[in-house]
Amino acid sequence: xxxxxxxxxxxxxxxxxxxxxxxxxxxxxxxxxxxxxxxxxxxxxxxxxxxxxxxxxxxxxxxxxxxxxxxxxxxxxxxxxxxxxxxxxxxxxxxxxxxxxxxxxxxxxxxxxxxxxxxxxxxxxxxxxxxxxxxxxxxxxxxxxxxxxxxxxxxxxxxxxxxxxxxx
Length: 168
What we know:
Elements (H helix, E strand, L loop, with lengths): L1 H34 L7 H15 L1 H6 L8 H4 L3 H35 L13 H26 L7 H6 L2
Helix pairs in contact: 1-2, 1-6, 2-6, 5-6
């Protein structure tokens, strides 16, 4: 199961990297098109879609690598038992919020598809297409957050304050 989950997180991160390459191409195309006096309809919107997609798709991988911003000032001053329970509460609350975010992101993409919602720009992109990357990223992030909660509840080795600061 661990290998499957890690593959999921790594795949989402790889897709985020591809979106970043696409963002680079879109920005370069926008710059070149302005310099050569031709228009690529919707290129700025597509660049925005790619940027948002890359951010959402990278969330789970970032969480599992311990790279999300954390405040360890309170944790460092607590005894080990209280620290463990506060970590459990925080990962549980985070997992719940991530699941709600995933649910509403998926619902938004689904509704945009059902109502044939399109962008207001001159490209008239069906909005469910860029929203799909957000929904997938949010879903994978929710899975990672639940994974973190389960790992924490099952007794992740407790880090000392110095170790926590070194990794953040």
